[in-house]
């Protein structure tokens, strides 16, 4: 693989959109929840009642953040001031937590129907890192990250996982705070300057840069590379469309990892990154 910069000896990767092809499923689930809320609570300004955009709105408001923070940020952008409610609220539109629960139900329904897959280029990179003895960790604001990685067949390629459940247990703030990445580096036994971070979310790139990590790699999977400029602006040292670009030669032994669980892996027809 391409040599890591001097002093960088561990790698921390985001999960959704970097390891697993699940970001589009998250975007589709958010659209279902937000559009229901906009119908139930039409904003005073009709222009703010437009449907959730699974591309631009997803990247700006919810990508890389916790469910509650993402829901609150998007609703505020549309002029909706719902009560916070309780984390125990069921799926609905009356509170921010209810909207977040609606999204979670839609997302888990998608997983049960379609399964999930890992990006082949990321699988190849993880195997190359493992062969080279480079410690590897995954981070995610989602509480489903462990399940996603297991279903995609890549959990054994990672030494540690710091997900939404761990963040709640340890009371770690979400991105753009670097706490998730810092905890992953701690578990890998290296300080932030000795670790590289791989992220596709602007909030995550900003978190890695604020945390002083030794290398920040942005991933832009948009068809027209529309996000590359923003990823650089938020602090990415380099941006790739696929992590296989970090490998110097193809490896015939690295086959794509099929999804596990119910059904086959498929992308929601309307949710585009």
If you had to describe this structure to a student in words, what would you say it looks like?
With 273 residues, the chain is of the alpha/beta class. It folds into two domains: 10-22 and 117-246, HAD superfamily/HAD-like (Rossmann fold), CATH 3.40.50; 24-114, no CATH class. Helices cover 39% and strands 9% of the residues. The protein contains ten helices and six strands. The protein has helices spanning 23-40, 56-62, 67-77, 96-114, 120-131, 145-151, 164-170, 179-188, 202-210, 228-234; strands spanning 10-14, 136-139, 160-162, 195-199, 215-219, 238-240. The chain has a six-stranded parallel sheet with strand order 3-2-1-4-5-6. Helix 1 (23-40) crosses helix 4 (96-114) and helix 3 packs across helix 4 (96-114). 48% of the residues are buried. Residues 251-273 have low confidence and may be disordered.
Mean pLDDT: 88
CATH superfamily of the largest domain: HAD superfamily/HAD-like
Taking the sheet with the most strands, its summary is: 6 strands, parallel
Q: Structural class per helix/strand content?
A: alpha/beta
> What percentage of residues falls in helices of 4 or more residues?
25-40%
Outline: globular
Strand content: 5-15%
What's the Cα radius of gyration?
A: 18 Å
**What topology, given as strand order, has the largest sheet?**
3-2-1-4-5-6
Number of domains: 2
Q: Give a count of the beta strands, DSSP E runs of length 2 or more.
A: 6
CATH topology term of the largest domain: Rossmann fold
Total helices: the number is 10
CATH architecture of the largest domain: 3-Layer(aba) Sandwich
């Amino acid at each position: 693989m391409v040599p890591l910069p001097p002093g960088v000896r561990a790698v921390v990767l985001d999960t959704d959109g970097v390891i697993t092809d699940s970001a589009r499923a998250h975007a589709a689930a958010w659209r279902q929840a937000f559009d229901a809320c906009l119908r139930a609570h039409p904003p005073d300004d009709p222009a703010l009642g437009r449907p959730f955009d699974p591309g631009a709105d997803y990247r700006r408001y919810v990508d890389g953040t916790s469910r509650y923070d993402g829901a609150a940020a998007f609703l505020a952008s549309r002029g909706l001031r719902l009560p916070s409610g309780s984390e125990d609220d069921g799926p609905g539109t009356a509170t921010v937590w209810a909207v977040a629960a609606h999204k979670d139900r839609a997302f888990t329904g998608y997983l049960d129907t379609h399964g999930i897959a890992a990006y082949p280029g990321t699988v190849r990179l993880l195997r190359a890192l493992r062969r080279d003895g480079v410690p590897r960790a995954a981070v995610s604001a989602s509480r489903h990250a462990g399940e996603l990685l297991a279903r995609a067949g890549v959990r054994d390629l990672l030494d540690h996982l710091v997900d939404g459940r761990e963040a709640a247990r340890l009371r770690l703030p979400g991105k753009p705070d670097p706490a998730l990445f810092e905890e992953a580096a701690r578990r890998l036994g290296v300080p932030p300057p000795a670790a590289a971070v791989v992220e596709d979310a602007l909030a995550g790139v900003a978190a890695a840069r604020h945390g002083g990590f030794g290398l920040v790699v942005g991933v832009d999977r948009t068809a027209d590379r529309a996000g590359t400029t923003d990823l650089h602006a938020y602090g990415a040292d380099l941006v790739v469309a696929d992590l296989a670009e970090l490998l110097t030669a193809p490896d015939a032994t690295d086959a794509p990892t099929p999804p596990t669980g119910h059904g086959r892996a498929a992308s929601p027809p309307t949710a585009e990154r």
